[in-house]
Predict the 3D structure of the following.
Amino acid sequence: MPHRFENDEIVEEIRRRREAHAKSLGYDLTRITEDLQRQERESGVPVVTLPPRKPLHVPRRRSA
């Protein structure tokens, strides 16, 4: 079954831009993250940062 976003032109444009951005920064995740954070700061658009959520209680397995 084909994925519903497989031939979506908007998704393809996002993928092309993301690839070009990563390539321009040498695929360095630290540089990519720093650049995206810089863009957020410079955009002037408020960015919401939520506090970490408490993990759900997951019962431990009993060993056999």
Observations:
- The mean pLDDT is 89.
- The longest helix spans residues 9-24.
